[in-house]
């Protein structure tokens, strides 16, 4: 080879574009190298193409589209780390020669020649450790029976603690266990734990880094919303008759009302009931059969249109009132029905004000006041009024809402004098306002449990050890798979979720025990009155219609509904002191 030819070849090599070195710390993405090769590719000698004004050679419209279009993510991998399973060949165009991807892809060594990276966090003497069980948690040897209620309660408690402290790992482990042992279609303990699991999952979805725990729930629990049923009047009437949970209070209250209103020509009933006046038809029937000349019945209720607490009704209170008036007419009883716009959220302030206005009308009216009995019937509704655990009411606000004694007689004013403190709640305010109305009798029926704690674990324990009762009793009166059973357990599930998953004003299920209600009533200047023997006998007769596990016991002046010896609901009657 002559010196001239060698020099000519060296000059040709120098004119070729230089590829980046393989050890470059910032490797060029494959799509950029691909584009660079195409842009600097010299044309074939037998083509008639000429350079453009910019010095680049034209290429086909297809390649232009490829280069100018957004590239998929897998093409953004650094070129030096990309190795296709099969060689990729570029289809030649009139201006580009055929290129193989292997022409500009570095050859990686076989996998068996690649040295694994050392683990900087492990050494030869290091022993992998499993996460220790929390203090007080049963060991794996003790967890032989996951269906045991005590075991499920401990799992739920530790899961709640983990969610509160944002311990995602521990919470995920416990939720996984609960998800496998708490079947929504299992026995009463499993269904109870399943409802609490659902509530904890809903709470985790709102708590810090534990939001990811929603994925732990299986597909059937992915939708955390609870489908509560809206009842027709007939459905709700049949529904509350299935169990003594409400009938116990209905029977005891009606017996006490009949005795307290004996001799009155007008009976004004203020019904604050969770069950939408389902107690009233039985009371109307009892009044019609007890009196030859039936008294006029005035029924006043608080509007529940915006109330989303189960059980829910599928018709308005105006329609409900029309049905009750027609029923009373069929029993030869004259009845008036009034709906007052008021809500538990403000302590039924609108209702109290309406009752005050009515009393003032009778005071200043020229005609004599009729012999009217004022009955306040509170059936499982007062525990929705905010209590001290939510917030305290300023003293100035309390004073503005208290009963105005100047509009009544001196005796009523003296009896309605109450002390107001800065720590009073709307719940206490409501009872003191009732005392200012000087009612004939106040009936208070509610669940005997304590769900007011601001501590999640305490609240969970209390709810778990109370709400097992409705799950245990449902097997005695509703078959598996029935619609009524689904409605019944959906309402319980709603209650559990409200107690566990919500806080602040959204947590409305703030049930108090009987002892605390007794103290509140006494502080509001009421005194308890015992139920008569006839009233107790009537309640016992009602219980005989249900399963053998239901019972009745007396405590002081009050009576309690029990299930297998455990307190469920209390009923009490109160007179102004």
UniProtKB/TrEMBL annotation:
Keywords: Nucleus, Transcription, Transcription regulation. This is Scarecrow-like protein 32. Belongs to the GRAS family. A motif (VHIID) lies at residues 267-271. The keyword Nucleus applies. It is found in: Nucleus. Residues 319-351 are annotated as: Leucine repeat II (LRII). Residues 236-301 are annotated as: VHIID. It comes from Phaseolus coccineus. Residues 501-575 are annotated as: SAW. Its main location: nucleus. Pfam families: GRAS (PF03514). GO terms for cellular component: nucleus.
